[in-house]
Design a protein that fits this description.
449 residues, alpha/beta, Arc Repressor Mutant, subunit A, pyruvate-formate lyase- activating enzyme, 2 domains, 20 strands
């Protein structure tokens, strides 16, 4: 990494899975959400996100909203509440929407019993209509995955599996409290493919405690030997003030900024050498995968699940803390499990926070998404498309000129093009040029690399 790029690598900047980001969320009334749901068009495809906030043990790197459970009682109660929440959501919409994407996240969604998982997907199908080519995806922990659960997933119509891998080096696993030998992941992949769940995603990480370049090389090489369709390579975000369990990880055990950058770049180089195409700044996919095709033809999108081929403008959340995206803004369910359950049991929708967006937010959101997905933006063309003056984004030019001087982008008038490979690592910093809310000195986001 060049010296002039160090300042970007150490800057805390949003990941832009939404714009405005969740940092701008405030109180939002249930009635507002009901009004938005009631306005959904019958022929409009939507996405569903289901949050299952439970795990059997805490991984120390985890930044997710989850709770540790030893038995099944709390999970079973959560399942019953989810079943009711689906009914309430369907009633509020007033018709049976078509679903193009369903994503189970966590926590560990496969902590649900095989029976309960099947019943819950059937419940969704009672109130929503799955499109014939719908992408039905589940995040899973290979350590607790069983052949019986894989069978239930296949029976429920799940066609994509996302496996948490992180790192295959034993000493790194020990220092993140996630012992997961290679054979466990290999076994899970074989079970899934044998059951007909062919689309496989892996999540890997760099910047972990005591992780070295040799660990990244070993992990990526072993992961590639299993031939996943997609790989996400996330940078560990050390935020012990926000996630208290991260205090177990000592600052001195973490790679410094230059080491983190080298790890991210090494992973990118290895995956390209094996024929994977680089998507945005942290995703990789086989050339014939829908995500690679979308990146090439300009249809790639970005939402709360990261890079996606999901073109639906509406994503509805189910479960405690779930975030949804709609034409008029963003919504978030009550994060506290007890409060969420009591609201559902009272027959109400559980949204408690969110944000009403305006035309400028939509205009800038689309510009940021273009930068994050296409690595380029014709500012004048974008302004014309949205009926804005051709100079409506000129407030970004001062920041963009600094990025150009530092060799991360090319500017041709009002046309922005990201320089590869160095600019790709700093896409978030480039996109931040168009953000009207972000204040670097008061940022509460993860570092750019």
């Amino acid at each position: 990494m060049k010296t002039q790029h160090l300042k970007y690598a150490t800057t805390e900047v949003p990941r832009y899975t939404s714009y405005p980001t969740a940092a701008q969320f405030g109180d939002l009334s249930t009635q507002t959400y009901r009004d938005w749901l009631g306005a959904l068009k019958r022929d409009e495809p939507i996405s569903l996100y289901v949050h299952v906030p439970f795990c059997h043990e805490m991984c120390w790197y985890c930044g997710c909203h989850t709770t540790i459970v030893s038995g099944y009682d709390r999970v079973g109660t959560y399942f019953k509440t989810l079943m009711r929440e689906v009914e309430l959501l369907g009633e509020a919409i007033g018709h049976k929407p078509r679903v193009s994407h369903l994503h189970f996240g966590g926590g560990t969604p496969t902590i649900l019993s095989p029976e309960h998982f099947g019943k819950f997907v059937a419940q969704i199908a009672e109130h929503f209509e799955f499109l014939s080519d719908a992408d039905l995806a589940v995040e899973m922990d290979p350590r607790t995955l069983s052949a019986e659960m894989v069978g239930a997933l296949a029976d429920a119509g799940i066609n994509r599996a996302s496996l948490g891998v992180q790192d295959f080096s034993p000493h790194v696993q020990a220092n993140i409290h996630r012992i997961q030998p290679f054979y466990i992941v290999d076994r899970s992949v074989k079970w899934l493919r044998a059951a007909g769940i062919k689309a496989i995603n892996f999540d890997l990480m760099y910047g972990l405690p005591y992780q070295k370049l040799s660990d990244v090389e070993r992990t990526v090489t072993r992961a590639l030997s299993l031939e996943p369709d997609r790989i996400a390579m996330f940078g560990y975000a050390h935020v012990p003030w926000f996630k208290k369990h991260m205090r177990v990880i000592k600052e001195e055990s973490l790679p410094d900024t230059l080491e983190r950058y080298a790890e991210a770049q090494l992973a990118a180089d290895l995956m390209r050498e094996h024929g994977y195409e680089e998507i945005g700044f942290d995703h990789y996919a086989k050339p014939d995968d829908a995500m690679s095709i979308a990146a090439r033809d300009g249809s790639l999108k970005r939402n709360f699940q990261g890079y996606t081929v999901d073109e639906a403008d509406t994503m509805l959340g189910l479960g405690a803390s779930s975030i949804g995206q709609m034409q008029n803004g963003y919504v978030q369910n009550a994060p506290n499990l007890k409060e969420w359950r009591e609201i559902v049991e009272s027959g109400q929708l559980t949204v408690r926070r969110g944000l009403l967006i305006n035309d400028d937010d939509r205009f800038r959101r689309a510009a940021i998404e273009k930068v994050m997905t296409d690595l380029a933006l014709d500012m004048e063309g974008h302004c014309k498309e949205y009926g804005q003056p051709v100079n409506a984004l000129d407030d970004a030019l001062d920041k963009l000129k600094g990025l150009e001087k530092d060799g991360l982008i090319e500017l041709d008038g009002r046309k922005v093009k990201v320089i590869e490979p160095q600019g790709r690592r700093f896409l978030r910093s480039i996109a931040a040029s168009f953000d009207q809310y972000w204040i670097p000195s008061k940022s509460k986001h993860s570092k750019a690399v």
